[in-house]
Fold this sequence. Notes:
By secondary structure, the protein is mainly alpha-helical. It has one domain (16-52). The protein has 1 helix and 2 strands; from the N terminus they run E-E-H. The chain has a two-stranded antiparallel sheet with strand order 1-2. A hairpin with a 4-residue loop joins strand 1 (2-3) and strand 2. It is flat and about 40 Å long.
Amino acid sequence: MEGSAQALTADLLYRTDLFTEQTILRLLHRYQTVLGNALARPDARLSELRAT
């Protein structure tokens, strides 16, 4: 992962024999949602942050 004040970028490697591209895209969307919620609520516990 690399980041700046404006953006966070990452490369994701996964086993295509285990995961479809659609599954990985869903995972990334949820990760992005959790990160956004963490930024909006920095004092919240991880278990309190929505992933959907």
